[in-house]
Each structure stands twice: as structure tokens, then as C-alpha cells.
Amino acid sequence: MSIEAPRAKQPKRERGKQRVAALLDAGAALFAEKGYEAATMTEIAQRAGASIGSLYQFFPSKDALAEALFNRYVERMGLVLDGIAGRAAGLRPAQLADLLVDLMLDMRADRDVAMTLLNSVAAVVESRKPPRYMVRSHVAAVLRAAKPGMSDEQSLASATVVTQFIKTVPVLAEAEEHGGQGFVQEARRMLTLYLERILDT
Amino acid sequence: MSIEAPRAKQPKRERGKQRVAALLDAGAALFAEKGYEAATMTEIAQRAGASIGSLYQFFPSKDALAEALFNRYVERMGLVLDGIAGRAAGLRPAQLADLLVDLMLDMRADRDVAMTLLNSVAAVVESRKPPRYMVRSHVAAVLRAAKPGMSDEQSLASATVVTQFIKTVPVLAEAEEHGGQGFVQEARRMLTLYLERILDT
Amino acid sequence: MSIEAPRAKQPKRERGKQRVAALLDAGAALFAEKGYEAATMTEIAQRAGASIGSLYQFFPSKDALAEALFNRYVERMGLVLDGIAGRAAGLRPAQLADLLVDLMLDMRADRDVAMTLLNSVAAVVESRKPPRYMVRSHVAAVLRAAKPGMSDEQSLASATVVTQFIKTVPVLAEAEEHGGQGFVQEARRMLTLYLERILDT
Amino acid sequence: MSIEAPRAKQPKRERGKQRVAALLDAGAALFAEKGYEAATMTEIAQRAGASIGSLYQFFPSKDALAEALFNRYVERMGLVLDGIAGRAAGLRPAQLADLLVDLMLDMRADRDVAMTLLNSVAAVVESRKPPRYMVRSHVAAVLRAAKPGMSDEQSLASATVVTQFIKTVPVLAEAEEHGGQGFVQEARRMLTLYLERILDT
DNA sequence: AATGAATGAGTCTTCATTCAT
DNA sequence: TATGAATGAAGACTCATTCAT
């Protein structure tokens, strides 16, 4: 139906892998700083210490770069959440809440870029259609690991709300940096309250 | 030399207000559809039935238009939240939670634009520095109205978390449209849980 | 089926008409000098004394400019050929041959551009599909005016060959400039021979 | 220091010739399909099953490739025309006309590329300056072979016109493919008429 | 005040050519 | 000699903004 958008090209040599990583990092930094549209391909290449031609060798379009960046974020989140799922069985709700909140604090930078891209890049949105909600399904797995008997329906609804909720943590952390106090702590409290209700009942 | 009859200007001002409103609406629609960068001033003017020159008469730059739009959103939110504050005294947590969630569902369209602008427009970000968190302070007022004895510190921290939380409601509503069930309901539950804790204790 | 390519925009003011003409002339000159690909839009605008933005105001793409140029050529040829058709009735073959050869000598510059475009620009080729052979049908009209009884089939076949033949006249004229002699004269002779055969029999 | 065994190089040279031929064929195909500018060196190399580096080993620039291709066309035309000259003595005008028309039909593909290059590549045009009209001089030889007494001046003028005329044959053939009839036949007739005049008188 | 043509800096992207491996 | 990653100049096109009418 639709014309297949060219994806990122895989590097074959070791040098290429390093370059791709540098390019992705530069893209992440600039997209986060200026937003998708305002960041220019030329500046991204420069920051990665590469030429514009080199950037296009691996990412044939700005959209392709954005998509690769988004995929990297989803993969990283999945990895960490799987780790949490592995340990979730023995944890109390407060501990699980802490783990999830801390995860978002750690991934703050990645998350910013991912949100920017999800809001600006048609290609990224399209590649997620029908919405697959990768992160959410990993969170659902965590919840089921924490309470083995939970129904699919319940774990899905809870995971949706929890996923959205923890996304706000970076904003709270930023608000603290602007002079607030105890915002993240209050979020831990709210999340704990909710997890106690759905896990302990 | 002669005193202008103020009456004569009245219709002009009236038309001006209508035109400004039309321009803001057109801007809101296009920013929501395409994002800030992709929306063009020419198209915004067209959709408002005005010429590009007319648009620049009222908003001297694209950033100025964005800022005006953001301010309109903040004002509207403030107005509604003040209304809720007026009624908050006699409500139970679950009722208050419903009011806040419903508010976000009603303002969904406005909210989308506001977020888009907050993510893309330096001028909007700058105009909020140091962050004044207008919406948050109205939410804090609601909480204090619901529990008159609450400390400023507590109401601030809670309002911050609640404000961020209710911002996720439009996303949950959208997820339901893509085939989920009970997401918004689950959010009401989580918010109720939290409000019970901070209001009833 | 296919996405409608945006065509040239009609100027509304007098100044605009002059500008469009200047732009077309500049385009014709540069396409003829360097070929379609090698000619740049920037240089075309410059030669017309306009800005690149102004060029794009009237011709939304390079293809659109090419197409407009080609259409102008077809129109001009049609006009002149219709004039010849009006006088063809009383002419002897040699006189008609002269008229046709002279026409090509006069239109030499236009013809060069038209051929260049027909060979390089997909949009021009497409806009002629299914081939309508505008010039050929005008030549056929000339032949039928010269010999009223001629069948449609005969006039079409003869017009096709004659049209292609007279297209070679500019090349012959150029060859004379590089030191040859009597080439165009020889073409008149060959064409006369053919016209005598199809008109006098 | 030591004398290289020539035998060892032989296979390399042989492979080299094959590779050059493959590269020329790939270039011809792509220039014909897309035009000179739109065809890329990378794609030409790919289609020939060679690397871009290899292509530049044999043809140091895109222009050099174009020139080589054009020369190959001229050589091939010369070869065939010499063959016709060898048989021209005993032929009647109609037979000679057929031979020349058929030649163009056979060489249609080659001819397309040659014309494309002649219209787009400065280097090819330059390499023909002062115009040497290789093909024309072979045609002149054919005419002199058909009528031994013909003056140089006459054979030159006639060869010029005939050469240009037969170049139109591929276009006529194409027009037939788009639904016309008898165009090539009409060209044979016109050429026969002319050859009868210059050869039989 | 209103209009919309004109401007040109800035963007993404391509591709001939080079050169390290 | 062969390969293909790297380079960067150059081109088509966009759009915020200005200003003559």
C-alpha cells in the first residue's frame, strides 16, 4: 500500500559501528535540545565528527535517523524492564515502585528524545501503527511477575496507567531542579499506594 | 485636533476580536495537526479566512502566535480549575478525582496544542522561565479548598504530582480508542486512592 | 491514478505577466545552453532578474517550468502553421516547402529548447501521453489545405514524415555555420520532391 | 628489475576487456533509461557487477565514460556503413534507401544513447569540435560508391541531408508503436524519391 | 487597515570522486 | 588491483517575514 520508507543501513565494519553510535548519540542530543524540526542534519553530523555524506550513508533520511533512535529507546526500556520482571516476584509494592521510578530517572535523557520524536515524526508514528505499545507490554509483564495470578485484562489496564504515570517522573525531577521539593518522593508514594491496591488484594 | 467618537471604533474592535479568535483557532488546529514547525503561517491565515499580512498585523511573529495560544490555554484551565475549587469543599475524593479527570477529557484538544508548543517553541519555554506552573498553582488551590488545613508544602507537592498525572488522561483516552478498555477508569481509581490518602488523613 | 503535478500559476497583475515572460525566456536560454539538468533554478531566476522565491511563486517546480516552456513552443508552432494552412491552397509544392523550412529556421531557438525538454523531462513526456503530436496535426492540416482531397490516413503519414524532416533543418543550418554549403538548400529540394509527389498526383 | 612474464597478464587483459564492455553496456542502458545526469556512476557500476572503484579504474570520470560510449557508437555506425558502401554499386535507389532505413532501425538503441550524450555532455560535444561528422562522411562514401561520378560537393550536401533524415527513422518507428501506420514506409518512399533524383540523373 | 507578491537564508538530500584498507 | 566508506560541494525547494500598492 504505502511506499516502504528506507531504513537505517547496518554498518559492516567495526569502525562503522562506532560511527553509527556516535551519530545516534549526536542525533539524540540535538533532537532533545532543539526538537526534531529545528535540529539539522548538518549539525548532527558535525557533532558526531562525521561528514554529512557519512551520516546519509547510514541513515538515508532524517526520518530514518529518528526511527532508529526511537527503536533504540524501546529496546533499552525493554531490556531494563525485563530485568525488573525477573526480580519482581519477591518485592513489596514500595520496592517495585522505587525500581520503576528510578528506571525513569536513569532513562530521562532517552525518554525526552523518544517523546519528542513520537510527537513530531510521522515515520515514527507510522512505524508504531497499529500501536504496539512495546513499553507497556513489558510493564504488564512486570506486574504479572509481581502477582502471578493477575488477569490479562487487569494487568493491561494497570500497566497502561502505570506506564503513563512513570513517564511523568522526569518532569517532576526537572521541577525539583527548579526549586521544588519532594515531588519525586510524592510520586513514589502515589505509585506505591496504587501497586499495593492491585498487588496485595 | 478633534475628539474621535469612540462609538465609531467599536465595530472595528469587535471585528478585530473575532479575527484574532479565528486566527488563534486556525493556529491551534494546524499546530495540532502538523506540529509547530510544519504548520505554515500562510496556511494558518488561509484557514482563518485572512491574508498573511493580516495575520502579521495581530501576531508579529510565529512565536508570538504560539505564545498567545499557550496563554489562552493556561487561562482556560485556570478558569475551570477555579470553578472546581469553588465546589471542592463538600466533595469526596472520588468525586474530586472525577472532576479533574473529566476536565482533562474536555480540554483534550487544547491540551494537545499546548504540549506541542511547549515542546517546540523556545519562546513559549522562555516565557515560562522561571517556571511559573500556572496550572499547578490552580490545582494546589483546589486541594487546599478540599482540605483547608493542608500545608503549603504538602499542597504544592501533591498538586505537582496530580497535575502531571491528569495530563496523562488524554493519552489513556486515546489508547482506549485504539482498542483498550477501562484505562481512564483505572486512572480515576488511582487518583481517588491518592486523594483519599492526602485529603482524608 | 497518478498524483497531479502542480502546474504553473497564472499571474494576476500586469507586473506578474512581464515577470513570467522574463522567467520563461531565461529558462529557455539556460535549458538550451546547458540542458535541463545542468541548468539551475537559481541561475534561471538570476538571469530573469528575479529571486529564487519569485521563480517558485509562478513555477512550483523545475518540471512545471519545463512544461510551461514546452507548451509555449507548441502554441507558437501551432499559430504559425495555422497561418501557413490559410495560405496553402494556392501554393506550389516548392513554395510550401520553402515556407515550412523557413518556419523552422525562424523557430530554431524555440525548437532546441523543446527538444531538450522532450528528451529530459519526465513531466513533459507524461503530459504528452497519450502522444498527441500537436505539431504534426497542424502540419497535417497544412497538407489537407494544400490538397483538399487528401485522405486522413495519407495526410497523417505524410505529416509525420514531413514534421520529422523539417525538424532536421536547424541542424543543417548549424552545419552550414561550421563550414558547409547548400545543406538547407538541399533540404528544400528533398522536401519539394516529396511534396510534389503527394500533392500533385 | 625482473622481466614480467607477459603470459600471466594475458588473462587479466582478457578479463579487463570483458569488464570494460560490461561497464559500457551498463552505462548505455542507464543513460538511455534515465538520461545522462540522472544515471549515477554507482548504479552503472552495480549493473555491470563491478564496484565503483573498478569503474573509475577504467573511466576516470563520468564524461570519459560518455565519450567512450559515443565513440563506440560512431565506430559501429562506420563499420556498418562501410559494409553498405561495399555493396552500393549495384543497387537501385529503393534498395539503398531500404538498407539505410533498416540500419537505423537496427541501431535504434545505440542511437538513443548517442543522442542523449550529444545533448547533455559538454565533453562529447567538445570532442566533436570542430565537427567531424564521422557518420556523415561514411554516408558520403556510400553515395559515391552508388554513383561513382558524383562530385565531392554534391556528395557532401546530399550525405548531410540523408544522414539527418535517417536519424528520424527511430522516432517514426516509435510513433508507429503508439498506434500509427505506415510512417516508416512513407520515409522509405521519401528517401527513395531523393536518391533517385541524385543517383539516376 | 488589508493584501499578497517578493525576498533569500536555510534545509534536506544527492552523487561524482577520492583513498585507506 | 579491487573495494566501498567517506567527503562536501551543489541543487531543488520552503517559508517566515517585509513592504509596495
Q: What key attributes describe this structure?
A:
homotetramer, Arc Repressor Mutant, subunit A, 2 domains, elongated, DNA-binding
Written description of the protein model:
4 copies of one chain form a homotetramer. Chain A has 201 residues and is an all-alpha fold. Chain A folds into 2 domains: 8-60, Arc Repressor Mutant, subunit A; 62-200, Tetracycline Repressor, domain 2. Chain A contains 11 helices and no strands. The radius of gyration of chain A is 19 Å and the shape is elongated. The model of chain A has no long low-confidence stretch (mean pLDDT 91). Chains in contact: A-B, C-D. At the A-B interface, α6, α9, α10 and α11 of A face α6, α9, α10 and α11 of B. The structure holds a DNA duplex (21 and 21 nucleotides).
SSE order and pairing:
4 copies of one chain form a homotetramer.
Chain A: H1 14-34, H2 41-47, H3 52-58, H4 62-88, H5 93-106, H6 108-120, H7 122-127, H8 134-146, H9 152-167, H10 169-177, H11 183-200
Helix pairs in contact in A: 1-2, 1-6, 4-5, 4-6, 4-8, 5-11, 8-9
The first copy, chain A, binds a DNA duplex (21 and 21 nucleotides) through helix 1 and helix 3.
What's this entry about, in short?
The structure is a homotetramer of 201-residue chains. By secondary structure, chain A is an all-alpha fold.
